[in-house]
Design brief:
Layout lengths: L1 E3 L5 H8 L5 E3 L9 E2 L12 E7 L8 H11 E12 L6 H11 L3 H12 L5 H11 E9 L11 H9 L7 E8 L1
Helix pairs in contact: 2-5, 3-4
Length: 179
């Protein structure tokens, strides 16, 4: 299994402790046998991997098309790409108003800060177009995001607000196999 954008390595260590063979990459990966400090675009391992997992990292890949091509190359014929990411541009006015209440600010300030913070990163539509060109979608769900973000709200509340149509679900989970 390859984890792209492993961050501090929690997922990779957890998988390795369950006897999965794991390679975890990130430009700031921790030290350790299963980790490499490398970007996806520069990974020299030929694979194949049974699965490539990316959590909150695909939107950071500089060359999205090249990165998705590289993931497709690294996967075995029966391999799976498993994503957990978010579309930063999906934050709409009602969602910004909700976040503004949490942060004790205004929706305009939330939207401005959110847009500035994510400038230059890939959004949901760009990621989906890239995925659709290279992978057959096996699963796609829209999910809450903010309960795991710095906003640290309550997951159940966020799910209820999404179900009621009060805020947008900006997170998504995707599973695909190479075309």
């Amino acid at each position: 299994m390859l984890e792209v954008g492993c961050g501090s390595g929690e997922l990779a260590r957890g998988l390795a402790s369950e006897d999965y063979r794991v390679l975890a990459i990130d430009p700031v990966a921790p030290e350790g046998e299963i980790f490499r400090r490398v970007r996806l675009e520069d990974l020299d391992d030929p694979g194949p991997f049974d699965a490539v997992v990316a959590s909150w990292s695909l939107h950071h890949v500089h060359d999205l098309g090249g990165g998705l091509d590289r993931i497709r190359e690294l996967l075995g014929p029966d391999g799976r790409l498993i994503l957990d990411d978010f579309g930063w541009e999906l934050v709409d006015r009602p969602t910004a108003a909700w976040l503004a209440e949490l942060e004790r600010t205004t929706p305009e300030e939330v939207l401005a800060h959110w847009t500035d913070e994510h400038a230059g990163l890939h959004g949901y539509d760009a990621m989906r177009r890239g995925l659709d060109l290279r992978f057959e979608q096996l699963l796609l769900t829209r999910e809450p995001y903010f309960y795991r973000s710095p906003f640290r709200t309550d997951e159940a509340l966020e799910r209820t607000l999404i179900a009621d149509g009060a805020i947008a679900a900006i997170g998504f989970r995707y599973v695909g196999r190479p075309r």
